[in-house]
TrEMBL record:
<feature type="transmembrane region" description="Helical">
    <location>
        <begin position="166"/>
        <end position="187"/>
    </location>
</feature>
<keyword id="KW-1133">Transmembrane helix</keyword>
<dbReference type="Pfam" id="PF24803">
    <property type="entry name" value="DUF7704"/>
</dbReference>
<feature type="transmembrane region" description="Helical">
    <location>
        <begin position="20"/>
        <end position="40"/>
    </location>
</feature>
<keyword id="KW-0472">Membrane</keyword>
<dbReference type="InterPro" id="IPR056121">
    <property type="entry name" value="DUF7704"/>
</dbReference>
<protein>
    <recommendedName>
        <fullName>DUF7704 domain-containing protein</fullName>
    </recommendedName>
</protein>
<feature type="transmembrane region" description="Helical">
    <location>
        <begin position="77"/>
        <end position="99"/>
    </location>
</feature>
<feature type="transmembrane region" description="Helical">
    <location>
        <begin position="111"/>
        <end position="135"/>
    </location>
</feature>
<keyword id="KW-0812">Transmembrane</keyword>
<feature type="domain" description="DUF7704">
    <location>
        <begin position="13"/>
        <end position="134"/>
    </location>
</feature>
Length: 202
């Protein structure tokens, strides 16, 4: 009788508990916090959305921001933003729960999670990209002794490179979102996903 070969791992576990805890519980809770902030505290959310360092000092927009004044359109937009956050929160929380509970085949489960991760990853980068693109370029820059020129895109990135220019909301919108994307990449590449079991061969 030929010697038996050692068992070989057949697949990485698609959704170990620690990854489910991250994607299905912790991330939805963080998104829920954003939804509550935007819906219940719209004036404060609006005030924090763009850090002072990025605002041209003399704009009407900045004056309204400092006064805590929200137009009806802005208030509606923030409410709708909160609604979108709730949708993302429910999508992640319920989908990851349902996938972990009801899909037993690991290959099928991994395929479904990959599609979900793609959707969330695209959302990560559109969120980061739009946040950066729509930030003002900053206050005017002095040119010579008395001249001033309008800040440009390069000035915006100079401000982004300075930690003192950030506030908590900008940090969340860019760096926390980027951290979530990195976690998705880590799952995708199989980090911290052990084998499901072993296949015995004669």
């Amino acid at each position: 009788m030929p010697p038996k070969t050692p068992p070989k791992p057949i697949a990485a576990e698609a959704l170990p508990y620690h990854w489910y805890l991250f994607f299905g519980i912790l991330e939805p809770l963080s998104v829920l916090a954003g939804a509550v902030y935007a819906i219940l505290l719209p004036e404060r959310y609006n005030h924090e959305l763009i850090p002072p360092a990025f605002f041209p000092a003399s704009t009407l927009q900045n004056s309204l921001r400092q006064a805590g004044v929200l137009t009806d359109a802005t208030r509606m937009a923030l409410g709708q933003l909160g609604s979108c956050y709730l949708l993302i929160m429910l999508n992640s929380a319920l989908m990851f729960y349902a996938l972990r509970r009801y899909v037993r085949d690991q290959q099928t489960l991994e395929t479904l999670i990959r599609w979900l991760i793609v959707v969330l990853g695209v959302a990560d980068w559109t969120h980061i990209g739009l946040t950066i693109a729509l930030l003002p370029n900053g206050p005017p820059k002095r040119s010579g002794l008395v001249g001033m020129h309008k800040a440009g895109t390069l000035d915006k990135f100079v401000l982004l490179a300075q930690p003192g220019s950030w506030n908590s909301l900008l940090f969340g919108n860019i760096l926390i979102t980027f951290g979530l994307f990195c976690a998705r990449v880590a799952w995708w590449t199989g980090i911290a996903r052990g084998p499901v079991g072993h296949a015995k061969t004669a």
